[in-house]
Amino acid sequence: MAKVGILMGSDSDMGVMAKAADFLTEMGIEFNINIISAHRDPQKLFTYFENSKTNGTKVIIAGAGMSAHLPGVSAALSSMPVIGIPMSNSLGGTDALHSIVQMPPGIPVATVAINGGLNAAILAAQILAVADEELFAKLVAYKNNMRDAVAQKDDRLNEVGYKNY
Predict the structure, then answer these.
(1) Looking at the predicted structure, is the pLDDT value of residue 119 above 60?
(2) What pLDDT score does 23 carry?
(3) Three-state DSSP class for residue 64
(4) What does the alpha-carbon distance between residue 80 and residue 157 come to, in Å, rounded to a whole number?
(5) Which residues contact 49 (CB under 8 A, 6 or more apart)?
(6) 40 three-class SS
(7) Edge-to-edge strand order for the sheet containing 82-86?
(8) Is pLDDT at 91 greater than 70 in this prediction?
(9) Structure-derived torsion over alpha carbons of residues 33, 34, 37, 42, reported in degrees to the nearest 10
(10) 162 SS3 class
């Protein structure tokens, strides 16, 4: 199965990125996960993308806070889809969000919510599922389970009333 590359600029991003890794594992999607700073070691990032051409990586999830260059530089170095996750920091992540969504023409980065590791992984799976019927079926089942969980909560609310919930 196609691979997803998960990149983060710092180990402080691991809590958010673990949500992406957990979902990809649940879906049976092979991935690699790396700490690579676009600022502190740009050569390592260049090398990562040189190797990604031959190791089967199809989609990149890149999380970044503050100046948030990792998703944009990743998109500049590659023609594969890049999903950016703005990370919360001292400014609440809005600075990273604005940085990631304001990419110049020709260098798109799909962007999810601040700290949206799970949504980034779901989007990566949806991209891969375009050419993978088995993965598509897993995603349908996942979304059906979410729908059923909401219905069960609604049933419970109606059984016990809102004051006893």
Answers:
(1) yes
(2) 98
(3) strand
(4) 45
(5) 74, 77, 78
(6) coil
(7) 31-35, 3-8, 57-64, 82-86, 110-111
(8) yes
(9) -110
(10) helix
Query: Which spans in 102-132 are helix H?
Result: 117-129
Smallest CA-to-CA distance from 117 within 1, 7, 2, 3 is with 7
Residue 24 tokens read as 């990809």
pLDDT at 158 over 90: no
Place of tokens 């890149």: 62
User: Are the beta carbons of 101 and 2 closer than 8 angstroms?
Assistant: no
Q: Give the largest Cα separation in the chain, rounded.
A: 60
* Residue 56, token pair as written in the block: 């089967």
pTM above 0.90, yes or no: yes
Two tokens at 39? 């600022």
Name which of 39, 47, 120, 35 is nearest 77 in CA terms.
Answer: 47
